[in-house]
Write a structure and sequence with these properties.
With 518 residues, this protein is an alpha/beta fold. Helices cover 27% and strands 27% of the residues. The chain contains 13 helices and 24 strands.
C-alpha cells in the first residue's frame, strides 16, 4: 500500500489559471525551483491576456498544487527556441502566434509533496489536447535537467542525459517528460544561465501530434476519439487483512496506469475475498458484515484513482442502506468524484443466500473519455437495459461479473456480445478466478474476461478486441475508437438501433429525469 505519509485528498480539479491565482502560483514556483526568480504579476497577467487557454492550474480542496504555462509558436521561424528568455518573451509571451504550428511549453510545476501522483501527466495531457484541438504539429519544450548538479563533478551534461534516458538515473524533470511521450532532440547549454541545479543546461524535446492534418491535405482523414480500456481478471485468494487486499488492488491499478489506461474495470463482488477475514454462522450475516468494509473500500479506491490518474470501475461491493442490502458498483473518476450503480436484477442465489435487494434506476455516467454505463452480472442478460443505456448516450458498457462455473460465465459473455451487436457499443467484462476455501457461496470462480466490440468491418475480426486466458490472473488492454461507433450506427452493414420497429414495440422506462421511451 502507499506510504501513510503520502497526502490524502478528496477531489482534484484542473481549471484555467486566473490572475487571482498569482500569489499561490508564485509561492509554488519558489517551492518547486528554489533559487530561481518566480513569476511577476505583470508576466502572469500578460500570459492570461494573450493565451488564457495555455495557462492551467490543478487545485486540491482550493489549494493550488500544480500549474502549467504555454504559448503557440511558428516552428519554422522560431529560431530562438534555445534561449528561454527569447522563446517566452521574458515570460510575457507577446510572441504568441495564434496561426503557429507548435505549442511551446514554458513551465510545469508540481508541489513537491504531491509528486508521484501523476499531476504532471494531467498537465501534459491537457497540452496535448490543445495541440489536437488546434491541429498543431506537436509540442516543443526546453526542460531543465534539475538533477544534474548532483552528478556534474562526475560526468558531462550529455552523459547525464544519456544515463537518464537509459534509466540508470532519474531526473525530476526529464524522466516524466520522457514518460509522457516526448522525444529528445538536443541538449541546450545556457538555456537557464542562472539555474544552479541544471548548471544552465536544458534538453530540447518534442511530442508529435499524430492527429495533425496538414493544411494542404483535404479533410478526408476521419476524426477519432480513442479510449484505452483495461480489465482485471482477479484471483480470489484468502487474505489476512483489508490492508493486504488493498495492496493487491493497487498492483493492478499501478500496472494499468503505467500503460496509460483511461479505464480499469474490476470484477463484481471481488471484495468477497474479504469474507476470509470474517467469522459468521450464516451467509446473510457475513454479507452484512462485509458491508462494514464499504467505506474503507470507497476511500481506498478514490485515493488510488486520483493517485494513478485512472478512472476505475471498482467492481461491486455490498452496501447497506438502513436494513436493505444492495450489490453496488462504484465508478471512481480520476478527479476524485464517485458514482454508484446498484444491481437491478438479483439472481435467485443472491436473494436466497445473502438477501440482496434490487436497485431501481439505471444511470449513465459522463467521464473524460465518454459516457458509460455499468451493467453488473445478471443485468447484462436483460437486453432492455443496454437499449436504455444507449438511449442515454452510453458508448461503453462495463460488465463486472462473478460466476462460479463456465456455463454461468458464458450466459453473461454471450449476452454482452449480443448487446454490442444490438446497440453498437463496446463492452468490458471483468471477472474473478480462483478459489476461496471455506467461504460459503463464494468458494469457486470461473472467468475469461474480455473487451468486446460490435461485429462488423470497422471492428475486430471476431468482435473481441482483447481476451484473457480462462481462469488465469492477468490484466488485458485495448485501445478503441469511440468515433467508430457513431459511424457504424449510421453506415454499418447492420444498423440495429436505426432499424428498430418502433411502430411495433418500444421500451418505456423510468430514468433519473423521469419517464422516457427508447
Amino acid at each position: 500500500m502507499s506510504d501513510s505519509k503520502t497526502p490524502k485528498f478528496d477531489t482534484l480539479r484542473m481549471r484555467p489559471m486566473t490572475i487571482d491565482d498569482f500569489d499561490a502560483v508564485a509561492a509554488l514556483q519558489l517551492r518547486c525551483f528554489p533559487g530561481m526568480k518566480p513569476w511577476r504579476r505583470d508576466q502572469i497577467a500578460s500570459q492570461l491576456a494573450i493565451f488564457p487557454e495555455g495557462q492551467r492550474v490543478i487545485e486540491m480542496e482550493g489549494r493550488i498544487v500544480a500549474s502549467s504555462s504555454s504559448l503557440i509558436v511558428d516552428s519554422a521561424s522560431h529560431g530562438a527556441w534555445h534561449d528561454w528568455k527569447a522563446s517566452t518573451d521574458d515570460g510575457y509571451i507577446r510572441n504568441h502566434d495564434p496561426k503557429g504550428d507548435m505549442l511551446y511549453g514554458i513551465e510545469i510545476m508540481v508541489e513537491p509533496e504531491f509528486r508521484g501522483m501523476k499531476l504532471s501527466r494531467r498537465l501534459y495531457d491537457a497540452r496535448k489536447e490543445i495541440a489536437r484541438q488546434k491541429n498543431l504539429t506537436g509540442i516543443m519544450i526546453g526542460g531543465r535537467i534539475a538533477g544534474y548538479h548532483r552528478h556534474a563533478d562526475q560526468m558531462s551534461a550529455r552523459e547525464y542525459v544519456e544515463r537518464v534516458i537509459d534509466k540508470a538515473l532519474v531526473d525530476p524533470v526529464l524522466t516524466p517528460q520522457l514518460a509522457n511521450g516526448f522525444v529528445l532532440k538536443g541538449l541546450i547549454p545556457g538555456y537557464f544561465p542562472g539555474d544552479s541545479e541544471s548548471r544552465g543546461y536544458a534538453t530540447y524535446l518534442q511530442w508529435t501530434n499524430l492527429d495533425h492534418v496538414p493544411a494542404h491535405t483535404q479533410q478526408a482523414m476521419r476524426p477519432s476519439r480513442l479510449v484505452r480500456l483495461s480489465a482485471v481478471q482477479y484471483q480470489m485468494r484468502r487474505t489476512p487483512s483489508f490492508k493486504e487486499f488493498g495492496r493487491q488492488c493497487e498492483f493492478f491499478i499501478d500496472a494499468a496506469s503505467d500503460y496509460k489506461s483511461d479505464f480499469l474495470a474490476f470484477p463484481e463482488l471481488f471484495t468477497t475475498q474479504l469474507l476470509s477475514t470474517i467469522t459468521a454462522d450464516r451467509p446473510g450475516l457475513s454479507a452484512r458484515m462485509l458491508a462494514d468494509f464499504t467505506q474503507p473500500f470507497i476511500e481506498l479506491f478514490r485515493d488510488l484513482a486520483m493517485r494513478y490518474h485512472l478512472n476505475i470501475v471498482g467492481g461491486s461491493q455490498f452496501e447497506l442502506e438502513g436494513e436493505k442490502l444492495y450489490n453496488t458498483a462504484f465508478l471512481f473518476r480520476r478527479d476524485g468524484s464517485i458514482e454508484r450503480q446498484r444491481k437491478l436484477h438479483i439472481t435467485p442465489d443472491e436473494r436466497r443466500w445473502w438477501g440482496v435487494q434490487p436497485g431501481d434506476t439505471l444511470r449513465t455516467f459522463d467521464t473524460d473519455r465518454g459516457r458509460i454505463a455499468i451493467l453488473m452480472g445478471y443485468d447484462i442478460e436483460f437486453p432492455e437495459l443496454a437499449r436504455i443505456a444507449l438511449d442515454q448516450g452510453a458508448d461503453i458498457l462495463f460488465v463486472p461479473i462473478n460466476a462460479d462455473e463456465r456455463q454461468a460465465y458464458l450466459r453473461m459473455r454471450y449476452c454482452a456480445q449480443a448487446r454490442c451487436i444490438e446497440n453498437s457499443v463496446y463492452a468490458v467484462l471483468a471477472g474473478c478466478v480462483g478459489n476461496l476455501p471455506d467461504v460459503e457461496h463464494a468458494d469457486i470462480h470461473y472467468a475469461q474476461s474480455a473487451i468486446l466490440t460490435p461485429s462488423d468491418f470497422y471492428f475486430s475480426r471476431d468482435g473481441v478486441a482483447a481476451e484473457c486466458e480462462a481462469n488465469i490472473e492477468t490484466v488485458i488492454f485495448a485501445e478503441l475508437d469511440l468515433a467508430l461507433l457513431a459511424r457504424h450506427r449510421r453506415k454499418g452493414s447492420a444498423r440495429n438501433w436505426e432499424d428498430r420497429r418502433t411502430d411495433l414495440y418500444r421500451i418505456r422506462y423510468t430514468g433519473p429525469e423521469g419517464d422516457r421511451e427508447a
